[in-house]
Structure formats: C-alpha cells, structure tokens
TrEMBL record:
Keywords: Monooxygenase, Oxidoreductase. Residues 9-250 form the Luciferase-like domain. One of its GO terms (cellular component) is cytosol. This is Alkanal monooxygenase. One of its GO terms (molecular function) is monooxygenase activity. It comes from the Bacteria. It comes from Nitratireductor aestuarii. PANTHER family: BLL6902 PROTEIN, LUCIFERASE-LIKE MONOOXYGENASE.
C-alpha cells in the first residue's frame, strides 16, 4: 500500500494558453485542487517553493488555507529552500499551519536547487559564515529548526513581562506536538540522504539526483533509499521513517490525454543542473493503463518508497489535473497493489 499525492510547482504565466495566468490563480487553484484530490481519495497535496519566479513562493499562507479547507489529506512541501529561511520564524509559521490543519503538515525542506537569481538568499539577509557554503548554511538553518520544533524552552524570560510567563525558559509559540517527526529532507545524493537519516528526518527524493554510478535513475534512487534506511537503523531512532519519490505519470484514458501526452515516451537522461555536477533525470511515464502498469512495476525506487507524489501540469487547470490524479487512482494504483 502506498500514500499517493500530487506535487504542484504552481507555475503561472499571463499567456492565453495557460489556465493559471496570475499569482492569485496559482494560489486559489492550489487550494481547489487539494479539495478535489481529497474528494477523489488521494492522500497528499504537496507544493514546490521557488523564489523570484512566477511559481509558488511563500508556502505557509497556502498550507494554512488548504488545512482550513480540507479534513483528511496530508498537506506538505517538496521542498522549501532552507538557504532562504529564518528557522525560528519558520517554526512559528509551521506550528500555526499544522495546528490549523489538525496535525496534517508534512514539511519537506532542503538545500534547494539553482534559483532564478544569483545567490538569492543574500537578498533575504542570509550569508554563509566563514568557511561555509550555501549548502552548509542550509543545513545549519535546518538543525536550528529541528531543535526548536522539539518544543523545549531556550529563551530567558523578561523579569517584568507584559503578560505572565510559565515557569522556566520560554519556547516558541505556537508549538505543534508531533511536527518534528513530520519534517522531510529533499536529497539529491546518497550522503545527504544518510545525513537526513542521522538527523531523524523523513526522505524525499525527486525526479532527479546527482549521478553517482551511471546506472539508470530509478536504480540509483532505490540505492539511495536503501542507504537512507540503513543509516536510519544505525542511528537508532524510535519510530519508522517515511520515504517519498516524485514522478510524472499520466494514464492515457481520453483523447485529451493522448493529445497532451500521447507522444511522451521519454527516457532517463544525464545533464547538468548546476556547473560541474552531473545529474540523472528520471523519465516521465505516459501510456495506456495496461502498459503503464507494466512500466511502473519495473521502477525499483517506487517499490522502495511508501509515498508517491504525482507531478501535475497545473497550468492545464484544476479540472484536468484532478482527472490526471483520478486516472492513476482508478486504473493504475489498484493493479499495482497501491490501493
């Protein structure tokens, strides 16, 4: 059995070919799709965060709104770039969003990918310290976030406060119990997956990873997941971790599906997402349900994961994206034992 959710990048463009033409459209349609996905029986609504781009950016107002409009579905990110985040302010926002959602927040965070501007985190007031890279700065921000989410007091109270304080050191409020165990790390390498396990975070693995062996994408990703689980066991954490993978999967069950994706028979390819680092990009899956089932049975990483996030073409509109999700839930998932 697998949890199946959608992942939206929330692209918008004023082009007449797009059904998502403004930031308002992207946000409101993201809420509507989460409601529709819950009604269809999907398990998660996840959103990607990018800065300086016509995409979803500030996640917490959206997550809170989705939490208020839904009742069951998990609500998450995949991922928030921690180079840009004040971890204390983030902990307050995350706690509030999780309480509004009744403890359904699944917060995916990461070092992030190349952004639209050069060193964009500097505009947000963050600079790597001496001897740090942007990646180590992101991990430092993450470690602070994980610590304050435990809910322990750390701040010295004012002896003459405006309002009475509880005894002892003060923690950030609002605190949402259990959120610390629902933090995920988006990893592109085996080593960062192992670090995530050591830190007690769940694992998110995307549609690309840095090439570490030349093997097919799904094989490398499955090896990454197994390395993560081994490191988790060695760390001795008390609870079981979760692992998600993202895929572009389209069941061709209508003429409109065939028009949009009927010629999409992509394969893995290798390329550079940033200078000097070769990455392997996973294929998309688009076929009639019978063929799709055969193809997906051979994906080792999906087999290793407990959660599957379906990337959706959000600019095609809520109705069509809901149809794409429903087609997987109805025609594909039961045949693969995911339902």
């Amino acid at each position: 059995m697998k949890k199946i959710g959608f992942l939206s990048f929330g692209h918008w463009t004023p082009s007449p070919q797009s059904q998502t033409r403004s930031a308002s459209d992207a946000l409101l349609q993201s809420i509507d799709l989460a409601v529709a996905a819950e009604e269809l029986g999907a398990d998660g609504a996840y959103y990607r965060v990018h800065h300086f781009a016509r995409q979803l950016a500030s996640p917490f107002p959206l997550l809170a709104a989705v939490g208020a409009k839904t009742n069951r579905i998990e609500i998450g990110t995949a991922v928030i770039d921690m180079r840009y985040e004040n971890p204390l302010y983030m902990a307050e926002d995350a706690g509030a969003a999780d309480l509004i959602a009744g403890g359904r927040l699944q917060l995916g965070i990461s070092r992030g990918s190349p952004e639209q501007v050069i060193d964009g985190w500097r505009y947000f007031g963050f600079n790597p310290g001496e001897g740090e890279t942007d990646a180590t700065m992101a991990r430092r921000h993450t470690e602070v976030l994980l610590e304050v989410l435990k809910g322990n007091g750390f701040a010295e109270p004012n002896p003459q406060p405006m309002f009475p304080n509880p005894p002892g050191l003060l923690r950030l409020e609002p605190h949402s119990p259990g959120l610390r165990e629902r933090i995920w790390w988006g990893s592109a390498t085996n080593s960062t997956a192992e670090w995530a396990a050591k830190m007690g975070m769940n694992l998110q693995s995307s549609t690309l990873k840095f090439d570490e062996s030349g093997k097919p994408f799904h094989v490398q990703q499955a090896e990454q997941i197994r390395a993560y689980r081994k490191a988790w066991k060695e760390a001795g954490h008390a609870h079981e971790p979760r692992v998600s993978v993202s895929r572009s999967i389209f069941a061709l069950v209508s003429d409109l599906d065939r028009m949009y994706f009927g010629r999409d028979r992509s394969e893995d390819h290798f390329g550079y997402i940033e200078p000097g680092t070769l990455a392997v990009f996973g294929r998309s899956y688009a076929a009639e349900p019978e063929q799709l089932i055969k193809d997906l049975r051979e994906d080792e990483a999906i087999a290793e994961a407990d959660t599957l996030l379906l990337t959706i073409p959000n600019q095609l509109g809520v109705t069509y994206c809901a149809h794409c999700i429903e087609a997987i839930l109805k025609y594909v998932a039961p045949e693969l034992g995911w339902r």
